[in-house]
Amino acid sequence: MEYFLELFMGGLIRGSIYALIALGYTMVYGIIELINFAHGEIYMIGAFTALIVASVLAVMGVHQLAILAIAMLAAIVYSSAYGFTVEKIAYKPLRHAPRLSPLISAIGMSIFLQNYVLLAQTSDFLPFPSLIPDFKFLEPYSSILRPTELVILLTTGVVMLLLTLLIKFTKIGKAMRATAQDRTMALLVGVNVNQVISITFVIGSALAAIGGVLIASHIGQINFFIGFIAGIKAFTAAVLGGIGSVPGAVLGSFVLGLTESFATGYVSSDYEDVFAFALLVLILIFRPGGLLGKSSTQKV
User: Fold this and answer.
1) In terms of residue numbers, what domain contains 228?
2) What's the CA angle centered on 60, arms 55 and 66, to 5 degrees?
3) Which of 38, 163, 191, 237 could form a disulfide with 18 if both were Cys (CB 3.0 to 4.6 A apart)?
4) What is the pLDDT of residues 151-168, one digit of tens each?
């Protein structure tokens, strides 16, 4: 039973990180129907930013909690700036271009950011300090859920709650929903669609940065390629739950994380990705729109 709980909690941790990244994919797609393949690299840049800031603060002798807060804030600001810039440079000029053009631009931007960090940093794995302080809780179950994992779960829950409140009850949230439903009509009623799209990229990038800092602190190492792997997994989770659906992205992330965790624990770590993508294929065969997505029909 303890082994099962350990795998279950491990799956929740994976799902939490996937969810923070997948939300960026699904928000952007829901509004402009574009898959931002550079989103995983924004996650990676957030982790590198936190590493640089944390290293400088550690040398200065700053307290660990202050290092975590400042490094997290720096990663959010820096990643958000990158997300905003990427949207303006790579996507906005192609807003009315054929669907294939922004897709190619997104892939190109992903490759560019990977190589940019590779040249600016190194191709080797770099050690990442544990920014989350160690503390004792639930003493009998401390081996199942570590403090860093508890912080990841709580942070993900709070972020998802705040995002839900933002989308449902704020002015910008209403503008996002209007733009996602009908961009032309949103323009006619006075919604600044370009501003809404930019804000969506900024919010998605900030969420990816939070995930990057948390998972890097949990694993203890990073390199320039972590964004590609995490991005593919998060994109899979978004499609699994229903691309364009915020609750779907969260559900798909946890389903994917639990599937990988139990496949690793009961079968073999070599088949982790096989089970994950096999599940995706089965879901799309029987529910093409994803778990919470809606299948749409088009007139021709």
Assistant:
1) 34-233
2) 75
3) 237
4) 888 888 899 889 889 988
